[in-house]
Specification:
Oligomer: single chain
Shape: elongated
Largest sheet: none
Helix content: over 70%
Length: 171
């Protein structure tokens, strides 16, 4: 299950980038004369894409030392301290700075912020758990990471629904 969790965590940002390229960019090009909510296009094509690589870097680094790639706690701790958490802090800070203009998009964006913060707290707790050799704290941290991933999946789903709804109203 840990391997599937890691694959799902990494798949989220990579899938989303492909989703944006395949779904959103044609709308901005092919429907230039139609009223597409500018806030959604700016949010996806500017705000999220500009910071998504930070999240991807953090998650790839984490996946490289966990699940099937796990070898030692020291290696996990080193990745958390030197790569995962620094990228994740920058990503979370920039994510919180995004301020969508519409209430609906603000509501959806809150899922992403909450999910990213939950994962961040999980990463930090896991690092502390490893340093203290506290298996209960490590388990709790892993659960936080999964909960954060689930919240970001909720964001992705809700954003997809909003994008579909916007596409339908364009016709």
């Amino acid at each position: 299950e840990a391997t599937n969790m890691i694959k799902n965590i990494i798949t989220i940002p990579l899938f989303f980038i492909l989703f944006v390229i395949i779904l959103i960019l044609p709308f901005t090009i092919g429907c230039a004369g139609k009223k597409i909510p500018h806030d959604i296009i700016h949010y996806v094509n500017h705000d999220i894409l500009n910071i998504s690589q930070l999240e991807t870097n953090a998650l790839i680094s984490y996946a490289s030392v966990s699940g099937d790639n796990y070898t030692t706690d020291e290696r996990v701790n080193e990745a958390l301290k030197n790569t995962v958490i620094p990228y994740d802090v920058r990503f979370s800070d920039l994510l919180r700075e995004i301020n969508p203009q519409t209430a609906e998009l603000k509501h959806i964006h809150a899922y992403y912020v909450n999910g990213a913060e939950t994962m961040h707290h999980g990463f930090k707790a896991k690092m502390v758990g490893i340093e203290k050799k506290d298996n209960n704290l490590i388990r709790m941290a892993n659960n936080q990471i999964v909960a954060g991933r689930d919240e970001t999946l909720k964001w992705k789903t809700e954003l997809g629904i909003l994008l579909q709804k916007s596409a339908v109203t364009m016709k």
